Amino acid sequence: QVQLVESAGGLVQAGGSLRLSCAASGRIVSFNAMGWYRQAPGKQREMVAVRTTAGIGNTNYADSVKGRFTISGDNARNTVYLQMNSLKPDDTAVYYCYLRHDIIKTVWGQGTQVTVSS
Q: Nearest Cα to 115, choosing from 6, 15, 11, 39?
């Protein structure tokens, strides 16, 4: 069974930085996409940043985080990172790691709380 283990989030002041990590383990034949979504109270879950491996690979960011967040990966460790800079109170949410593998299989992490105080 494929599992995702996320690092702890935390409480940070506006303008601060935080780095999340997510490691995948288990039987994975092919990685297709890996990244982060988030869900704020009363809102739908939204994509934050995702790396895909199709072709030469691609990285997609939500418009709200472009220029502030950076997603990166360590393929040897099956790990993806999310560096979050210039954090804003609107970034407060539960952040979920996401993995799509073997074409059609999707796995979600347990979620980690990120709180940005003003």
A: 11
**Strands (DSSP E) along 1-118, which ranges?**
3-6, 10-13, 18-25, 31-39, 46-52, 58-61, 69-74, 79-84, 93-101, 105-108, 112-117
Distance from the Cα of residue 65 to its chain's centroid? 12
Q: 78 near 70, Cβ under 8 Å?
A: no
Q: What is the pLDDT of residues 47-68, one digit of tens each?
A: 999 998 766 668 999 999 999 9
Contacting residues for 62 by C-beta, under 8 A, at least 6 apart: 46, 47, 48, 49
CB atoms within 10 A of CB 31: 18
Give the separation between CA 95 and CA 40, rounded to whole angstroms: 9
pLDDT at 55: 60
How many C-beta neighbours within 10 Å does residue 24 have? Answer: 20
